[in-house]
């Protein structure tokens, strides 16, 4: 058969089916390469590179293991800091007193974004929570932020 001849009938359908199937398989391979192959191991290499250890301090110092969230000096008296990756807000209502709270607003599940003016603030709908006990200081939230246990070891703060 020459290149000038056009296939018709069952032979044309078979060839089209074969080409369409090959295209679908190729597309599936490309899409699979873009997908997630999450093995559940956070230390597993993701791109053929070396695994990154989950201990130590990315800032360069040793914070006594991977559980340390902050140094006591990182949390201002009368204020606090939000650690969204760990799901916690750490506050220091009075000098040397550290509290932990869930970082998800009880109104509609938005993450709280900052600690300012003596309150933990959600900028989604402007709820405000006490840095002392997580109670609602301004709605629309009606339930307090749940407490999270934190411990202070030396100058390190971690989840208890």
From TrEMBL:
Transmembrane segments: none annotated. Residues 67-159 form the Rieske domain. InterPro entries: Rieske_2Fe-2S (IPR017941), Rieske_2Fe-2S_sf (IPR036922), TAT_signal (IPR006311). Keywords: 2Fe-2S, Iron, Iron-sulfur, Metal-binding. It holds the Pfam family Rieske. The keyword Repeat does not apply. Residues 38-73 are annotated as: Disordered. It comes from the Bacteria. This is Rieske (2Fe-2S) protein. It comes from Micromonospora peucetia.
């Amino acid at each position: 058969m020459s290149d000038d001849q056009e296939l018709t009938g069952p032979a044309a359908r078979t060839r089209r089916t074969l080409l369409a199937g090959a295209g679908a398989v190729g597309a599936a391979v490309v899409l699979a390469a873009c997908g997630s192959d999450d093995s559940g191991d956070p230390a597993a290499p993701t791109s053929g590179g070396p695994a990154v250890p989950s201990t130590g301090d990315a800032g360069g110092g040793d914070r006594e293991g991977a559980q340390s969230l902050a140094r006591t000096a990182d949390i201002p008296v009368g204020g606090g800091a939000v650690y969204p990756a760990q799901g916690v807000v750490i506050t220091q209502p009075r000098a040397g007193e550290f509290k932990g709270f869930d970082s998800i607003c009880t109104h509609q599940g938005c993450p709280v974004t900052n600690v300012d003016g003596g309150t933990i603030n959600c900028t989604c709908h402007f709820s405000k929570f006490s840095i002392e006990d997580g109670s609602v200081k301004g709605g629309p939230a009606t339930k307090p932020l749940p407490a999270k246990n934190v411990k202070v070891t030396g100058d390190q703060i971690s989840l208890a």
